[in-house]
Amino acid sequence: MFTFKVKDKEYKIKFSINAMAENDLMDRVQSLFQMMEEDGTVKIVRELALTIRELIYVGSQKYNPIESVEEAGNVFDDYFDEHKEQGDTDITTTFFGMFVKDLQDEGFMGDLLETMMKNQKVEKKKK
Known about the structure:
Mean pLDDT: 84
Radius of gyration: 16 Å
Number of helices: 6
Strand order of the largest sheet: 1-2
Helix content: over 70%
Number of domains: 1
Largest sheet: 2 strands, antiparallel
Structural class: mainly alpha
């Protein structure tokens, strides 16, 4: 879980099992990383925008539900504007990175990924 603040409102983000079971978000994040490795086209920009909106929407549901993905997009727009005014750079990729780190390190997803990685290492040693 992590938090971020926009217009004096704090948003708590947690990718609970219920939130993650309702969508294909992990597939989209993985697909986005593959696109980034393969090429730097405009397609990436659209997919990143769609994915960030959904990450905010899904992650906020447990502690401070946002009503729609469009509202989640407005939250990001406000976050971006505030950080741009402060002179920050790489705002979008840094913001996306916070979500990816949380998905990888926290809660049931982090535990599941860690277990899967350990099992792969054991299987490789057996071969």
